[in-house]
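Incident log, structure service

09:12 report received: a user says their structure output differs between two submissions of the same chain.
09:20 pulled the input from the user's history:
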Amino acid sequence: MRDFAGPDMPRKPLTFDGLALLWTLLFALFTASAQKVMACPTGCHCIQKSGMTVVQCMSRNLEKIPSDLPRDTVVLLLASNHITHVPNHAFRELHYLQEVDLSNNDIETVDVGAFQGVSDSLLVLDLSNNHIQSVPKEAFARLRAKISLSNNPWHCECTLQEVLRELRLDPETVNEVICHTAVQEEYAGKPVIQVLDSGINFCNFHHKTTDVAMFVTMFGWFTMVIAYVIYYVRHNQEDARRHLEYLKSLPSSSQINKDCDTISTVL
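09:34 re-ran on a clean worker, output below:
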């Protein structure tokens, strides 16, 4: 006869087979999670180097920054592609990211929040040899990284001056940050740092330009008001003259009375 354990009877300990099954399940879950963290973007090559995850995506004809980067990425190499834009939160989940190479791409725009989430960890950022003319003042806010911005067609004006003031530029390429265009054409073709070190303040030009624009606008409005007043006065004068001539053409009251007396006499 089979014995059935009652509710008060002690349970039998897990057998070796049960423990093995439990460990197998835990290992499978850990492996799946690790694979998710360590998944490498299509077309890229991920390697472990000195305990760091290096993601190599150089010369892969990429048109945008991959969104499925491993979360433990430390070095991200995206040079020599066709990336045109660095969007907001492009590296938000990469909390261990220390180096990003985006050189030799076609980047034209960098969003305000492009580097949010990595400002504390990022140590090296290379944006050289792209098509960047300007960046928002807040794009590199709180970044401590050494940044290379050389060989871009920069437009030298107040915003760029304020951006550079907050950055830690790569000293080896700082003289290769050239004014392609400028608010004052005489500075085009010159290194930005050289121009700023000479005492030039692009923000002064900005304010002067704004003041001149305001003056021209106010002068235009003033001219329009004066022209309208002159037109209004002349138009009223003409109306008054015509009205006066009309009144003069009317018979006077004495003439009307004389005519009335004449008619009465005849009658």
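09:41 both user submissions now match this output. Likely a transient worker issue. Closing.
09:42 reviewer note: The first strand starts at residue 45 and ends at 49. The helical segments are 16-38, 158-166, 192-197, 202-249, 253-266.
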